[in-house]
Amino acid sequence: MLKEAHRIVVKVGSTLVTNQGKGLDHAALSDWAGQIAKLKHLGKEVVLVSSGAIAEGMQRLNWNVRPTALYELQAAAAVGQMGLAQAYAASFCDHELNTAQILLTHGDLSNRERYLNARSTLMTLLKLGVIPIINENDTVVTDEIRFGDNDTLAALVTNLIEADALVILTDQAGLYTSDPRKNHDAMFLSEVSAADPALLKMAGGVGSSIGSGGMQSKVVAAKRAARSGAHTIIASGRETEVLVRLARGESIGTRLLATIPVLAARKQWLADYLQVSGTITLDQGAVNALIMDGKSLLPIGVTHVTGNFERGEAVACLTPEGREVARGLINYNAAETRKIMGKASTYIETILGYVDEAELIHRNNLALL
Ligand SMILES: Nc1ncnc2c1ncn2[C@@H]1O[C@H](COP(=O)(O)OP(=O)(O)O)[C@@H](O)[C@H]1O
Ligand SMILES: N[C@@H](CCC(=O)OP(=O)(O)O)C(=O)O
């Protein structure tokens, strides 16, 4: 599927980029740069999402043990990101390609205006033939709002630029029925549907102290990417010429096919909103109205509210059993929602003294998951 893909996001994980978690594997970086240069010659646009800042920072600061305190991790990332950017700039320069560093936070992608700005900058860089190199802006994010693993970031970037494919390079040949480090009977999966709920049970967490999300975050990333129609490949970054061979049509790694309906761009952004400010639980009638009839959510269908959100913020819509079915921008704040829940919209004015909208969440501001 990489053969047909025109715009590709390639993610290289911490376990590959670093030498046992310490410093950068410069030879590996230079090898991927060479492969990406070949993809460019095949007419493809490539965005690289690379981890490695913390490991390189530890090396530069002579720290042997990965710190656990967030402020130390952030300091290491700030030091190490210099090395990461330098190493890629030098490697791509050997192939006469310019690079651009883009450091993103969750806030950059959940604010609609900043999201659109990030998108136009990336599109401009691609038009200029530059290779954007993306990492999380570790230095400014706190625990609660971190992507943490770069798989999530890579999936969000895939959706942001409407890439055709996401290639996640890691230290395993692909996805197995269970963690091959722990289970020698684990069987390799060459093709699956990205939306198959069984995958999450097979995918485990990290197998080493170096990576962050394990296979779990890769499987979730593939499902996210599928919402914009992108297929995902998980493959070993140590496989010789892996990117070039994939682009020639060879079958390497696990293909996670995008088999779910594609969401429109704005709904895509809503679905990718990582942090919601609250939850509202719906009765079964409201769940059906949303899912089967594509209706807006009215206050009468709400049974419970958690959180302290403001008007216009993102909330999660839950089934009576607590499963999230949709995410949307709400028209009333948490206190108002608590007052009008379970009531017909005609009573909103009597209860609140004013009425903004008859809908609690308009269907244009609602993304079904
Ligand atoms: N079902 C599975 N198939 C393959 N690998 C798995 C599976 N479950 C867990 N893993 C683990 O996921 C690890 C890769 O994830 P991670 O360490 O986060 O790498 P990266 O830094 O490349 O993101 C593998 O080393 C492996 O031990
Ligand atoms: N942003 C961090 C990397 C986060 C991380 O470890 O992600 P991953 O490669 O998905 O395990 C860094 O550059 O060190």
Summarize the structure.
The chain is an alpha/beta fold and 369 residues long. The chain folds into two domains: 7-267, Acetylglutamate kinase-like (Carbamate kinase), CATH 3.40.1160.10; 276-368, PUA domain (Archaeosine Trna-guanine Transglycosylase, Chain: A, domain 4), CATH 2.30.130. The chain is 37% helix and 20% strand.
Description:
The two termini are 25 Å apart. This protein is globular. With 369 residues, the chain is an alpha/beta fold. The protein contains 14 helices and 15 strands. It folds into two domains: 261 residues, 3-Layer(aba) Sandwich (Carbamate kinase), CATH 3.40.1160; 93 residues, Archaeosine Trna-guanine Transglycosylase, Chain: A, domain 4 (Roll). Helix 2 packs across helix 4 and helix 3 crosses helix 4. The strands form three sheets. The chain has an eight-stranded mixed beta sheet with strand order 5-6-4-1-7-9-10-8, sandwiched between helices. Strands 12-11-13-14-15 form a five-stranded mixed beta sheet, sandwiched between helices. Strands 2-3 form a two-stranded antiparallel sheet. Adenosine-5'-diphosphate binds next to helix 1 and helix 9. Its EC number is 2.7.2.11. It comes from Nitrosomonas aestuarii. Pathway: Amino-acid biosynthesis; L-proline biosynthesis; L-glutamate 5-semialdehyde from L-glutamate: step 1/2. It is an enzyme of class 2 (transferase). Keywords: Amino-acid biosynthesis, ATP-binding, Cytoplasm, Kinase, Nucleotide-binding, Proline biosynthesis, Transferase.
